[in-house]
Amino acid sequence: MTDAILSCEHVSRSFGGVRAVVDASLEIERGTVTGLIGPNGAGKSTLVNVISGHIRPEDGTVRFNGQDITGLPPYRVARTGLIRTFQLSSEFPWMTLLENMLVAPKQIGTSFGRAIFNRRSWIDEEYRLLAKAREYLQSFGLGALENEYAGNLSGGQKRLLEIARALMAEPEMLVLDEPMAGVAGVLIDRIVDHILELGRSGLTFLVIEHDLEVVDRLCETVYAMAQGSVLSRGTMAELRQDERVLEAYLD
Amino acid sequence: MAYAVTLGVYFFTQLILVLSANLQLGLMGMANLGFVLFLGLGAYVTAILSLGAPNALSLQHYFFGASLPFPLPLLLAMVVGAVLGLIVGLISLYRMRGHYLAIVTLAILSIVWTVVDGFPNFLGGENGLDSIPQPFSSSVTTYNAYQWLFLGIAAFFCILVFWFSERFFKSPLGRMAKSIRENEAAAATLGINPFKVRLIATVCGSAMAALAGGLLAEYVTVWGMQPWSFTEIFPATAAMIIGGRANNWGAAVGTLATFILVGQGTSFLPGFSNNPELSYAIQWIIYGVALVAFLWFRPRGLIPEQKSKWRRAPAPLGLARSR
Fold first, then answer.
1. Cβ within 8 Å, pair B314-A134
2. How close does chain A come to B277, measured CA to CA in Å?
3. SS (H, E, C) B38-56
4. B128-157, pLDDT tens digit by residue?
5. A37 to chain B nearest CA, in Å?
6. Domains of chain A
7. d(Cα A182, Cα A162) in Å, to the nearest integer?
8. B15/B151 Cα distance (integer angstroms)
9. ipTM rounded to 2 decimals
10. Cα A23 from Cα B201, distance rounded (Å)
11. Among A103, A106, A172, the residue to mutate for chain B (most B Cβ within 10 A)
12. Do A115 and B314 touch (CB under 8 A)?
């Protein structure tokens, strides 16, 4: 592989006696949409939590853009340009859609001194970000709801909001943990279209997904995990022929 | 009339305390119950720094005979409050959330309170400190005029704190604080350091509570154990919840309702005027019932938290990315 933006090398992590991730290695090429599949308990979410800094690995390293990010706290991983979403929708329920969006970008108005005593220094930036947030909400079909509390959205709309919010942070890579969980029908197609379009514009994706048909539509390269290990890597068609992957799914 | 002015002073000082709770519990969702500790602390620091040297008649322990001019004792009380708030924050906020944070901050309050209570030679213990000088008292001759003067002082500081809170709440910093309340893990994955924001809120809240304590001590001229015992957490928290969490105007309405209407009003009920113990008991019953009723029927309070508004007209689409 030529240009890996994210690489995990020999990552391991166990909880008590359960070996959740065992010597897992993978590389994500810059500008691609890569899938990560596997049956329940395969260790996908744990691996993502290790990448995003929510769980410390016992062994192995995680590199992002050449930088060793192993064991950094989540907010510092995020500041390197690697943003993740969660399996459970994680909107800020009692904040409006616009407020949700405006939490994400790095902005000067969050420093204490400026926030209180120098409103002028950040107010222009605020309106610039506001316009950008509106634009994203429009393109995700949420524009009409911009002043609604995020907690009132449907499951699918929450997922759209989360992706839009993540984009406000200007990430280089998005890790989506089961973005289709609890989403039905037309909204799945819309989320797929958005991911593909963003992928074409150069954003790198790692998508953890149960729905193999969705993975097929999204990803050229797919990693398959089972029982904590990375079994194989290939296109979805190749993985469907792979005996070890089939075995893992049939178990 | 003088009574109304006294109520006004009381309202403004308590509102500062409720705003401190509102910043920490309302906006940030931090169950920091230790804010009352800083009320007591601010009062003691103010007293120590303004008591002056002892004379032959004084029965209490004086510290270094400091008698700093107004408003230095208050400002230094805020500084001490902020520094100790930082220390308490560093101890308790790093790992603890929710119930755990509530218990730990309550424990810290209890420890300090018990120590002060148990060493009467230190800060007067049960007897407290008295003869705390009132600012400008020598230049105003009549009692009534002084009440008005102090009302002005209390109002001035309260408006300042209110302005500060409004700025905090309506800035990107306040939005960040709110997002941590709503979903800490999600906020962290957007690059926000929750610990740092919590620490900022704790330091500000502690300084605000210390200011409230200092003002109360200067107004009442005595300070003891009761005004900062852990039961005082209750009316301040009730005021915040009844008024509306994370809304500063709600805090003001809540302070009016709990501290003034209920806190003072019960003594005007027929048959209660000669029985302060009964009216005190009734107060607490009303606080409790009102709190439960609000949490049940109107959990967001009288004036709920407001959605952000942006006054400037929206920029036409497409312009946003050009800059």
1. yes
2. 42
3. HHHHHHHHHHHHHCCCCCC
4. 888 788 888 777 778 888 889 999 999 999
5. 22
6. 4-91+170-250 (3.40.50.300), 94-152 (no CATH)
7. 14
8. 13
9. 0.91
10. 42
11. A103
12. no
